[in-house]
Each structure stands twice: as structure tokens, then as C-alpha cells.
Design brief:
about 30% helix, TIM Barrel, globular, alpha/beta, 14 strands, about 325 residues
């Protein structure tokens, strides 16, 4: 039976805007790949990211160009040879997983080799970059969440972190620079960041310049995000980072993400499973590798003014596994 591919773009407004060191987003533009085979439909969602040279139009063209291959029986193995790792491959890879689960009756977690059905996991909740007072207000609203990720930039690091810590005295804290840190300020801030209870510093320096971190004398683990995309990147990061942030939009889908988690564990990295700002459809596949992660950062739908229906169930900091009506 022939499989038909439909590609569509969708836009979801972000609640109040979302700022990181590279700029502000007010909406999430996603691309959905939908596969139909008889009565069965499989879906996958991605977020094209300009930082990686992607655009919504470009990803749509990439996916639409594979309609013939899909009709001819494209599978996940062959897909990896036709598309480079990135958003487009993620959407189609996850749609293939979903279609397989729907048509076979075998849930995706079993096909992925998990020993048991996924369980609820706690997610970090992100506080966007803003003035210290505004970040303190945002942290106060989220003070009952056990894990907060704080977006920071080149300056004002300690002022912002003091405001956050005062507002959320019990929360565990991760800070994320998105390549925007000032290394000298970070070095000087180190002792107080330790005292403030920061337990992870994510991607302080730009890709290609992060070798300078090898001599950073701060007893806080460093996490790679923009510097790590696929399994092949891991070996070069061993001397710099202790944690790797694995995102399906970077790896090119669930297939590579699962392989990457296994390799990262063998190499001695702790794993974070992260996301772009997107809907529950993008988070659902990531919940499978999240079962083995030290940090889960799948709060994308919580940052939206509205999620798709049906969506994942969030209860406080906990995310519950997807119902098959959503994915998998």
C-alpha cells in the first residue's frame, strides 16, 4: 500500500515572547510531516532554526522533494542517507516512527528497545533573558518548580542570578548562555555561581571558540548544545564538556537521538534531552530518550500561548508520556 506525504507549516504564538542571547521570538513556526497509509496516519514536527542555516520554506521544500521516495517505501535507514541531520529529517523520521506504531500496533517505545513503558519525568522550566527585576518576577511565578533553566547573555550575570535565586530559593538552577557569554566575566562570576547553587552551565561560548573552556577553573559541569549535533561530534568534546544536550531537531530525529544517547553514555557524558520552542507533537518522541537522561528540558509547550490538541499532559514539573492519539 502506498504511503502519501503531506507537509504543512503551522504557527503558534509564544506567551509573552521568549528572549535568549541571540534575540526575541514571539511565535513558534513549525513544520509538520504527515504520512498516510490507508487508514493510518503518522506525524512528526520540527522547528527550522536559522542558527543552523534552516528556514521554514527550505525545510518544506526538502520534505516535499521526498514525496516520491516516501511513496516508494522510504524507511528510516534510507532517510538518513537522503537528508542531512536537522529539522527536515527530524519531522519525517518521527512521522515514520509514528506511522509504524499506528500500523503495526507495536508502540514506539518497544520498537526503540526500552525495557518498559515510558514514565512521567520532571522537566526544566525556562526563564527567558530579561532585566534582573523581570527575571526575578518570572522566577517567583515558577518558584515551586524543582528545576529552572535561566537564559543569560554577555553581562549582568550575577545581578540576574541573584534576582532569580532570591525569588526561587529552593529550585535547582541551570544557566544557558546560547553561545553569548563573556569568558572573563564568567570566570570572575564562578565562585558566586557556585554559592548560588548553579549546577550546570550550558554552551557559554560560540561553536569553534569553546576550546577556551578547557582551562576554565569553575567546579560546575559544562554542557554542550550548539556544539553538538550528532554522534560524530562527541569525541571532540570530551576534553571540554561533561553534559551534552541532545535535541531531535539537531540529530535529525529519534533514530539518531537514541543512538547518540547510547554513545554519550559510553563516552562518559551525562545527557540532557532538550527542545526548541514547539508543540507537544515535537516533545512526544523526545520522551523516549528522556527516560535515560539526567536533565529533561522539554518545556516548549509551556512557553506557548496554546498547544495543539491533543497534547502532552503537564502536571507541575512532570511530563506524562504521549497518548497514541498524539504520537507513538
Amino acid at each position: 500500500m502506498t504511503t502519501a506525504l503531506t507537509v504543512r507549516r503551522e504557527t503558534f504564538p509564544i506567551r509573552g515572547g521568549f528572549r535568549i542571547s541571540r534575540g526575541v521570538k514571539t511565535e513558534a513556526e513549525v513544520v509538520v510531516a504527515e504520512l498516510r497509509r490507508g487508514d493510518f496516519i503518522g506525524r512528526g514536527e520540527c522547528v527550522p532554526y536559522s542558527r543552523y542555516g534552516e528556514s521554514v520554506d527550505g525545510v518544506v521544500r526538502q520534505l516535499e522533494g521526498l514525496a516520491g521516495a516516501v511513496a516508494d517505501g522510504l524507511d528510516r535507514v534510507r532517510l538518513s542517507s537522503l537528508l542531512a541531520a536537522g529539522a527536515a529529517r527530524n519531522a519525517l523520521d518521527c512521522a515514520l516512527w509514528d506511522l509504524e506504531a499506528k500500523s503495526s500496533g507495536v508502540p514506539a517505545w518497544k520498537t526503540a528497545g526500552l525495557s518498559e513503558a515510558p514514565h512521567a519525568v520532571p522537566t526544566l522550566f525556562t526563564i527567558g533573558l530579561d532585566e534582573p527585576e523581570a527575571m526575578g518576577i518570572a522566577a517567583r511565578a515558577a518558584r515551586d518548580r524543582p528545576l529552572l533553566k535561566i537564559k543569560l547573555g554577555r553581562d549582568g550575570v550575577l545581578e540576574r542570578m541573584r534576582a532569580v535565586r532570591a525569588a526561587a530559593p529552593k529550585a535547582r538552577l541551570v544557566i544557558d548562555f546560547n553561545e553569548g557569554a563573556n569568558l572573563d566575566e564568567l570566570r570572575e562570576s564562578g565562585p558566586e555561581l557556585v554559592a548560588l547553587g548553579v549546577e550546570l552551565i550550558e554552551q557559554p561560548l560560540p561553536v569553534g571558540k569553546d576550546r577556551a573552556l578547557a582551562g576554565l577553573d569553575i567546579p560546575i559541569p559544562l554542557g554542550a548544545d550548539e556544539s553538538v549535533h550528532g554522534t560524530a561530534d562527541l569525541a571532540s568534546l570530551l576534553a571540554i564538556y561533561q553534559v551534552v544536550n541532545i535535541k531531535l531537531d539537531k540529530t535529525g530525529g529519534l533514530t539518531e537521538a537514541l543512538a547518540m544517547v547510547a554513545r554519550a553514555e559510553r563516552d562518559g557524558f551525562a545527557v540532557m534531552i532538550g527542545c526548541m520552542v514547539a508543540t507537544s507533537l515535537a516533545m512526544a518522541p523526545a520522551l523516549l530518550p528522556a527516560q535515560r537522561a539526567r536533565y529533561v528540558d522539554l518545556d516548549g509547550p509551556l512557553l506557548l500561548a496554546r498547544d495543539r490538541e491533543p497534547g502532552l499532559r503537564y502536571d507541575g514539573a512532570m511530563i506524562y508520556p504521549a497518548d497514541p492519539s498524539l504520537w507513538g
